[in-house]
Amino acid sequence: MKHIVITGSTRGIGYGLAEAFLDLNCSVTVSGRGQVDVDQTIMKLSERHPSEHLFGLASDVRDPKQIQSLWDRTQDRFQKVDIWVNNAGFSGIQVDAWKIAPEIAKEIIETNILGTMYGSMIAIQGMLSQGFGALYNMEGMGSDGRMVQGLTYYGTSKYALRYYTKSLREETKNSPIIIGSLRPGMVATEMITKPYEDRPEDWERDKRMFNILSDRVETVTPWLARKMLENTNSGEIISWSSPWKIMGRFLASPFHKRNIFD
Question: Residue 153 in contact with residue 92, Cβ under 8 Å?
Fold first, then answer.
């Protein structure tokens, strides 16, 4: 049985991945910033899956000591980590770059860039010691250079992670470690809806576009989990979306209404 560690897995894509890996007969370590959220997630997952396949620990990815503890305690429980997914992320609010509060900009950069770097450092060291393992970093809006007004810091962080992941692949190419990227495309989570909480009119204006482009967590995450388990190549980019898929949806939109958020 393979064991998977997923940071930021108490909600959204991370939670969906945890559920998907459990469905594929893996064991999973769930992690998030708050122990209450972690405990509630474990309880929820245990309703459908054996509790012996689950472990949860609160870990703030901005603190390398907490991430080291996440690795160590997972090793104590399951004796190995087959796949480590750096999923934890923070988008902040959607606002022009010069208007954002400095503490929010700091949290975005520390969570998305430093958090992924700390997770990668610790996971790679551990995997080199055990002699195997795969590390996947979560890309997102901005990783391909595309810009969205009001999400400058989030996009910058994801653009940096593309370089970082490619560099990790080069530096580990003579090792048994697999380095990969995940591109889930646009997924219906609070990262999309939260910036609109105080802007209902803007949400009604933009919702149609999001319904065309987005997919539900439970649609995307099982596919991503299967692809990670099947992959044997370092440098693999596991991408759910594609230009052809997006084009097809726009062409079909006058005839087929998608209600992802309704």
Answer: yes
* Token duo for residue 86: 């750096």
Number of H helices, E strands in the chain: 10, 7
* Alpha carbon 150 to chain centroid, angstroms: 21
pTM of this structure: 0.92
First vs last C-alpha separation in the chain: 38
What distance in Å separates the CA atoms of residue 226 and residue 83, rounded to the nearest whole number?
12
Each residue of 105-145: pLDDT tens digit? 999 999 999 999 999 999 999 999 999 999 999 998 878 87
> Hey, how many other C-beta atoms are within 10 angstroms of the C-beta on 151?
23
Q: What is the DSSP letter of 52?
A: G
- Give me 249's structure tokens: 């949806």
3-190+217-242 has which fold? Rossmann fold (3.40.50)
Structure tokens at 63: 């603190």
